[in-house]
Amino acid sequence: HPSEVGMVLRGKQNDPLALSLLLNHANPAVRTQAATALGELGTGARSVVPHLIQTLSRDQSAWVRRIAARSLGKIGGPQARDGLQIGLRDKDKWVVHTTTQALKNIK
């Protein structure tokens, strides 16, 4: 439900730790928005890259895993690049595709 997502995320868009905690939320829409917001923080979210890697490896939703991969590509760095290797082995072809694109974005 969009209003629930907005309420849960309110005031957290620039707080990597708060956003990373929302990656475990029951609602996949909240997890998607949290992963998206972390990607938008770019290098400012490097401290929570392990949380995005865990999301990429374990989330039940292929869509959430795709967004986690995309965000790791936007955040960049060696830890994100290494973590993206998980996405290359995902059972969902679109997660694999997004991961491949994300790896190309990391300098």
Outline the secondary-structure elements.
Layout (H helix, E strand, L loop, with lengths): L1 H8 L6 H7 L5 H14 L7 H10 L3 H14 L2 H7 L8 H13 L2
Write up this protein.
The chain is mostly helical and 107 residues long. Helices cover 68% and strands 0% of the residues. It has helices spanning 2-9, 16-22, 28-41, 49-58, 62-75, 78-84, 93-105. 39% of the residues are buried.
Total E-strand runs: 0
How big is the Rg? 12 Å
Tell me the fraction of residues in β-strands, as a range: under 5%
> Taking all residues together, what is the mean pLDDT?
90
N-to-C series of helices and strands: HHHHHHH
- In the predicted model, the low-confidence regions spanning at least 5 consecutive residues are none
Principal-axis shape: globular
Number of helices: 7
Give the helix/strand class: mainly alpha
- The end-to-end distance, rounded to whole angstroms, is 36 Å
What percent of the residues sit in helical stretches (DSSP H or I)? 55-70%
How many strands, what sense, and barrel or not for the largest sheet? none
In brief:
This protein has 107 residues and is mainly α. Helix content is 68%, strand content 0%.
List keywords for this structure.
single chain, 107 residues, mainly alpha
